Amino acid sequence: xxxxxxxxxxxxxxxxxxxxxxxxxxxxxxxxxxxxxxxxxxxxxxxxxxxxxxxxxxxxxxxxxxxxxxxxxxxxxxxxxxxxxxxxxxxxxxxxxxxxxxxxxxxxxxxxxx
Amino acid sequence: xxxxxxxxxxxxxxxxxxxxxxxxxxxxxxxxxxxxxxxxxxxxxxxxxxxxxxxxxxxxxxxxxxxxxxxxxxxxxxxxxxxxxxxxxxxxxxxxxxxxxxxxxxxxxxxxxx
Lengths: 114, 114
Known about the structure:
Chain A has 114 residues and is mainly β. In chain A, 0% of the residues lie in helices and 56% in strands. In chain B, strand 7 and strand 8 form a beta hairpin.
């Protein structure tokens, strides 16, 4: 898991706060992803960045704002969240080349919205 | 559209016995298939993948998976289960034309009892 790191590992925030999640990949990959994992729900793809360009926004509410300044870093900016946004947020990366479609995940940020 | 089904929410097996975690898929064209494992409060960890070639794929920690094209299945197997194998297992698929998008199944919890 050291190939993809996420900070913070745990975050508690109020509904009026603004916070950011950070992801960094050390694998030389050129694609990065944000997923949401809620209890008893399938893994939900939120955003995809290929070569720093956003290629997928899976109908995510605007209170979630991604940023990808370079191919190694990915942020998820959070504001005015709702309690139902409490979940494990996972970052992943992969290489877009040949047959290497497997994604490598970070440990996640456990977010609690109070 | 591509989809994955993991028909069992939970699989229980005694330590030392063989285990099977089931996965079926639906995609256009030839599938790329993946298995991941998730331990508590951790991200998903890549176990193995099938792209082409031998239908039996070997992966990490003694796990293997068998690709069956006629049954559109990719079941995960291990000859002898360990208590430490207890975790959440996810199957994922990428179909033709899906770019770098993976579709994940809902997950199967494996419980290995001593």
